[in-house]
Amino acid sequence: MPPPTHETDPNQLASQALNALGAQREMPGLSVTHGWSFSFQAGWITYALVLAVVLICLGLIAASVLRARARSQSAWQHPVAIAQNPAGAASPHLDRAENFAREGRFAEAIHELLLQALADIRALHGTALAPSLTSREILREPSLADTARTALRLLIGRVEWTWFGLRAAESADYQAGRADLDQLRQALRPA
Q1: Partner of 25 at 20 to 30 A CA spacing, among 45, 61, 97, 136?
Q2: What distance in Å separates the CA atoms of residue 186 and residue 191, rounded to the nearest whole number?
Q3: How far apart are alpha carbons 25 and 19 in whole angstroms?
Q4: DSSP-assigned letter for residue 6
Q5: CA of 1: how far to CAs of 4, 13, 17, 51, 70, in Å?
Q6: In Å, how far are 18, 121, 125 from 186, measured between CA atoms?
Q7: Confidence of residue 29 (pLDDT cuts 50, 70, 90)
Q8: Domains of the chain: which residue ranges?
Q9: How many CA atoms does the CB half-sphere of 158 hold within 13 Å?
Q10: What does pTM read for this prediction?
């Protein structure tokens, strides 16, 4: 290869160097024109596979969102439905708590008692509490009476020990939780 001179074009030098090295300059069998268009025989198969994967992913996401929405709607009652179900009346949470307790599933039963307590606070206390508030956030609600706050604190503690703390719950724990709920309901009743 001759030494470069001022008259030599850099593109020409690069071309000569690539030729001297025997470098491949284009991909064999694949020529990209513009956009997503490929001019090789299996292009439509690639499109179909990519489209199928995208559709499957979208379907899985939609199914997951629908399952989460169904779970949240079954666990949360609309405030109007709660208001029509005053404390002392049968409720789905209390019914589930009793069923869990009969089956010996005391942690689940105590958790349902807490859900009932929160529903009672929303219905009877008349406070507009967002459904996204945690039980600890509701505990700090300033308009909650001290006796109701104490009962709720005890019930929250029982749930945290047995539901989240993985401490085995027993019948006595459920009975104490039921007493906490009764005390909370009594404190929430108008004077």
Answers
A1: 45
A2: 10
A3: 9
A4: T
A5: 9, 9, 8, 51, 75
A6: 90, 11, 12
A7: low
A8: 79-188
A9: 30
A10: 0.53
Model pLDDT for residues 48-91, shown as the tens digit of each residue: 889 999 999 999 998 888 877 766 554 444 443 444 444 445 68
Q: Are 121 and 149 in contact (CB under 8 A)?
A: no
111 CB-near residues (< 8 Å, 6+ apart): 159, 162, 163
Residue 6 main-chain phi, psi, to 5 deg = -70, -20
168 touches 108 (CB < 8 A):
no
Q: What is the DSSP letter of 76?
A: S
Q: What is the pLDDT of residue 90?
A: 62
Give which of 79, 70, 113, 74 is closest to 93, Cα–Cα. Answer: 113
DSSP 160: I
Let me know: does 151 contact 181? Beta carbons within 8 Å: yes
One-letter identity of residue 137: E
